Amino acid sequence: MVSVRYARAYVEVLECLKLLPYKEYAKIPNDVIDFFEQNKDNEYKFQIDTTKDLKQQNISREANSTILVLFRDYFATETEKENLKKVLQYNENIYQEELRNKYNIDINFNKRVENRSQEINTQNLPAKVNENIFARFLNKIKNIFHIK
What was the pLDDT predicted at 130? Predict the structure, then answer.
């Protein structure tokens, strides 16, 4: 069973594939098409407006990825495959750099320390902390037995 997001994406992919000429559609193996058909969300309705560019369509990220894989595997020339590989690698590098910046331990730790020190400095701390009776009793016992 596939996730709901991918089930809906398969509906979108199948709608896009319907617009292909028969010669191009025939390049995709029947088992791939059957997989999309069997795993699609039958209740999800999606239509493509042929007057708009594909970029202007409301196609999900999952459907875009699936279409990209289909293009790479069944339609692209060797040159297009190499160019696509370079673009995908470039995008992956940018994404990984963003993750490194977002989750960089040194930067995040330093920000936390700075924020915490600012919070402590701005708090109005009482000059003398009043201890409860239990804490005072415990301190007296420690003093008697010379425990620190």
Answer: 59
Q: What share of the chain is helix, strand, coil (3-state, %, to 5)?
A: 70, 0, 30
User: Whole-prediction pTM value?
Assistant: 0.63
For 57-68, letters b (16+ CB in 10 Å) and e give bebbebbbebbe
* Consecutive 10-residue averages of pLDDT for the chain (148 residues): 88 91 92 94 89 83 91 90 90 89 71 63 54 71 70
Task: Determine the residue type at 118.
Answer: Q
Residue 13 exposed, middle or buried by CB count within 10 Å (0-12, 13-18, 19+): buried
- What does the longest C-alpha to C-alpha distance in the chain come to? 95
Amino acid at 45: K
If we measure between CA atoms, which residue out of 16, 29, 9 comes closest to residue 74? 29
